[in-house]
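quick one, 405 residues, struct below
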Amino acid sequence: MKAETPGTVKLRRVLSLPWLVFYGVGVTIGAGIFALIGDILAVAGDHAPWAFLVAGVVAGFTAFSYAALASAYPRAAGEVLYVKHGIGAWAGRLVGYGLIATALLSGAVITLAFARYVSSFSGLAESAALLGVLAALSLVAMAGVRESVGFAAVITALEVGTLVIVVAVGLPPAIETGLVWRSLAPPLDPALWTGVMAGGFLAFFAFIGFENVVNMAEETDNATTVVPKAVIWTLAISVAVYALVAAVAASHPDRAALIASKAPLAVLFEGATGQPGAVIAMMASIAMVNGILVQIVMGSRVLYGMAEEGMVPRVLGRLHPVRQTPIIGVVFLAAAIALLALTVPLLQLAELTSLIILIIFTLVNASLFLLGRQQDAPGKLRRWRWWGLAGAAVSLALAVSEILP
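---
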């Protein structure tokens, strides 16, 4: 059956608050903690939990801005519309391209991390693992949004469950030795904050995802109230989980092994229990499937929204007449993610992703301030406009701290 062009087939509104929270938590909690905890420990040391706290504060400022803006503009490609209306069409287009780049880069990070964990316990070549998972998840994404988010919800439970196991086995010995209290204590030496800020920049990658919730607005019932609540719940759950995992990792006696490993949480489990970490590596690899899927789903919705606004070729927003999913956008994203994952190192992908999303957050927050100044702006935007200005300053500060020597 021939696919329809944008405008003749619409996205299906089938999502409620629990589904959106599962979706947001599923994409937020993933490769950022599974793959980058070793790199964050390398730069932040004992104070790695504070690196996650810094990143969480920056994300928190922006989360409230997203919540306010989503209540006024409950549509797909949310950030694009916020910035388009607040700053101008050129800025909206720039943000749209940035979101696509973020989906590609983040998807490549998670796919590569998945392949490394799979390789660590199976011996399968990383390239074969990442190409196989992308092909399979593209089919899931094409099947439909309820199928995609339902699949993501199941994997989210496994994802969080894996981290809970790591905390459960690692926290008691960390408390017994007293090392956990050292990691939770704020750094008193100003020089240590250089490492904390550098770690915060990397840790920010672990929070990318909560903003993706707004791009599902056109597939959500009662989006003006449900989407803002889902954004806040997603971030709150993610901060709590990351704080615990980072404290346990920073308390691990063999930090060098964690930093050097391609599967650091598996090493953490082995050190705490004396048991083989293959089961954790296997669970982690399955959990990261979720993040890959959500990046493909999110990116294809941004492409759909931009096609509807005339910002990208309309073919990229074409929906399947039965499944009502942007199948061409899905194929495009999966192919581009594969290319990046095969050619660019993981840490560089993560750093570039964090930088782009911080720039996007700066523009989104600034848009809240500018929109809130308009006489005909909704009351919520007017009340929160100064929060948008503060959020823009905080996001820009973290980005600049990494760019400047």
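The chain is about 75% helix and 0% strand.
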